[in-house]
Amino acid sequence: MTPALELTDLRKSFGPAKIIQGVDLSVGKGERHAIIGPNGAGKSTLFNLISGRFMPSSGEVRLGGELISGKKPYQINRMGLSRSFQVSNIFTNMTVRENVRCGVLYSMGYGYSFWRNIGNLKEVSEKTAHILDEVGLLEKANLPAALLPYADQRTLEIAITIAGGADVILLDEPTAGMSHSETDRAVALIEKASKGKTLLIVEHDMGVVFNLADRISVLVYGEIIATGTPEEIRGDAKVREAYLGEEAEDAA
Ligand SMILES: Nc1ncnc2c1ncn2[C@@H]1O[C@H](COP(=O)(O)OP(=O)(O)OP(=O)(O)O)[C@@H](O)[C@H]1O
């Protein structure tokens, strides 16, 4: 079967610094795959290469078999890959509902056409309400996004990513800065919202990673040193030596 996402000998250098050094990765349709690794390993750079923000120095990225490396982020988005925005990129002067509606409109091919009388489009309103309900933000739908507590802003960010309707979703540290209970809620939301979709997630919280992921890849100095199930990764001597150590014990 064609993988949902496939990286082949992907490389990225900034000047003389080789940051991504020949990454091969195949993520199956419907798989939840986590990328872990120490600070500075190149995880964000990898996401930037996949989502089109950075051009690879060499190598290929394929989405559902189609070559996407070299394309612009919006083109890649249109082809079915959505990446979570940073919190600072949500529209803070709009309401929570309007933020999600933007994602829904975009997925339906309207683009960001704010001048339309979009409130009247029944299908848009229904989809928006469904997503708000799914992520538990329906009661706060009419609040300006700026007034949401931090964890809710992160949740909104995930909701917008999902609202885009993409089949492949990249989440960059979705639980960063959250408390234990907020993290638990976020994991439940991600599990629910990513059903039937392919998920690639960068996350530092090993509890989240070992709970959520079907498979894990470990990135160290721009190279994947191991890929496997949570069990395989937990038991991998190379991984323990290079990175996990006691964190894996804690998450067990
Ligand atoms: N645009 C850039 N120009 C030069 N160097 C860069 C650029 N972007 C990233 N780097 C370097 O690439 C290396 C990897 O950074 P990256 O942010 O991808 O790591 P990371 O694994 O996501 O780290 P963290 O876990 O701390 O977020 C770092 O040494 C960083 O300084």
Considering the chains and any ligands shown, give keywords for the structure.
37% helix, Rossmann fold, four-stranded antiparallel β-sheet, 252 residues, binds adenosine-5'-triphosphate, alpha/beta, six-stranded mixed β-sheet
Structural description of this entry:
- It is a single chain.
- By secondary structure, the chain is of the alpha/beta class.
- It has two domains: 1-80 and 168-178 and 198-252, 3-Layer(aba) Sandwich (Rossmann fold); 82-165, Rossmann fold (3-Layer(aba) Sandwich).
- 37% of the residues lie in helices and 23% in strands.
- The chain contains ten helices and ten strands.
- It has helices at residues 43-51, 73-78, 96-107, 122-134, 150-163, 180-193, 206-212, 230-234, 237-242, 246-251; strands at 5-14, 17-27, 32-36, 58-63, 66-67, 81-83, 168-172, 198-202, 215-220, 223-228.
- The protein has a six-stranded mixed beta sheet with strand order 6-7-8-3-9-10, sandwiched between helices.
- Helix 6 (180-193) links the parallel strand 7 (168-172) and strand 8 (198-202).
- The chain starts with a strand and ends with a helix.
- The mean pLDDT is 88.
- Adenosine-5'-triphosphate binds next to strand 2 and helix 1.
